[in-house]
UniProtKB/TrEMBL annotation:
InterPro entries the record matches: RNA_pol_sigma_r2, RNA_pol_sigma_r3/r4-like, WH-like_DNA-bd_sf
GO BP: DNA-templated transcription initiation
GO molecular function: DNA-binding transcription factor activity
Record's protein name: Uncharacterized protein
Transmembrane residue ranges: none
Amino acid sequence: MSRKDYRQLSDESLLDYYHSTRNIKAFRELYARHKDCLYRYCVQMDPAVANEVLEILWNGLLEHPPQLSGRLLRSWLFIQVNKLLRNHACQNAQAPRRVPPAQSRALQGIQQLPRIERNILLLHIECALPLATVADIERISLKRCKEHYRRGKEKLEEFLYGPQRQPWRLKAVEGVAQ
């Protein structure tokens, strides 16, 4: 099978092919497709454990084929990464979250959001997952997911640009002039 043939296969077909033949080229193609967005997501969620979480994820994928249960592999990968990040967060709940000083202002704002809002924003914006899939990952209703998304976006915009400007109050200005 040529490299061009690998590119034409879906993620799920590539995964099946890898697990049936153990052809490392098939795995490399899968890895290349998803490594960047998974890494960016993990680093923005919890930079201290990103590398460890991804190593566990990819090693698990190499060893045991996942039960996709009708899901796309991309969705399954983010569900697994999310579970691993939650496990690490529960284990390290006592440790205070540190934001390294060299981070961009946007990343600092993202890091200050509550975990659920940060996760929903990153999965939808950075990883381009639909909100329905994000709601499935978070195990919440689509309506609650949309509310968290809106609230997180507002908090991030306020962090980046300051509070929303209020319109002039004409009555207050007229009262001062008299």
